[in-house]
Amino acid sequence: MKSSDLIEIFPSVPNVQGDCCDTDSNLEVETDCCEDSQSFYEESIELKEQLKEHFDKSVNVHLYNYDISMDRVMAQKKLSELIKQRGFQHISEDTILKYVTPAVVVNGNLISFATKPHLELVIKEIN
């Protein structure tokens, strides 16, 4: 294992389309999508900690925080490039986080997208 291994975790973004999480609308609020997004972020934090523990902190693990504008822009650019390599040119950079996350990238290789990432898959990719 190289000491320069980099694991990037892209948590799912909250579904801000429509009235999901919109408490000001007159329509019934769909709390499932709000809870799903929050639980995916919490699971991403847990995955990050599990990876650091498993590799005894010998890998760099970056969890993107979309509240930080630089992280959001970097995540959009990186995922857009990787998804286009997979043949999904029709997904614009503006909507990439909505359709592709949650995702995991290991050493520049997209190993999981649009599904919940699993610890075993990431460990297998590094070893």
How would you describe what is shown here?
With 127 residues, the protein is an alpha+beta fold. The chain is 43% helix and 14% strand. It has a 4-stranded mixed sheet, sandwiched between helices. Strand 1, helix 1 (31-54) and strand 2 (60-63) form a beta-alpha-beta unit. The longest helix has 24 residues, at 31-54. It is globular, with a radius of gyration of 16 Å. The model is unreliable at 22-27 (pLDDT under 50).
Task: Please write out the topology.
Blueprint: E1 6-10, H1 31-54, E2 60-63, H2 69-85, H3 96-100, E3 103-106, E4 109-113, H4 119-126
Summarize the structure in short.
This protein has 127 residues and is an alpha+beta fold. Helix content is 43%, strand content 14%.
Task: Supply database-style keywords.
127 residues; 4-stranded mixed sheet; globular; 43% helix; alpha+beta
How many helices? The count is 4
Can you give the mean pLDDT? Answer: 83
Distance between the termini: 7 Å
Structural class: alpha+beta
* Bulk shape: globular
Helix-strand topology string? EHEHHEEH
Strand content: 5-15%
Report the biggest beta sheet as strand number plus sense, adding barrel if it closes: 4 strands, mixed
Radius of gyration: 16 Å
User: Which stretches of 5+ consecutive residues score pLDDT under 50?
Assistant: 22-27
Helix content: 40-55%
Q: How many beta strands in the DSSP annotation? A: 4
Strand order within the widest beta sheet? 2-1-3-4
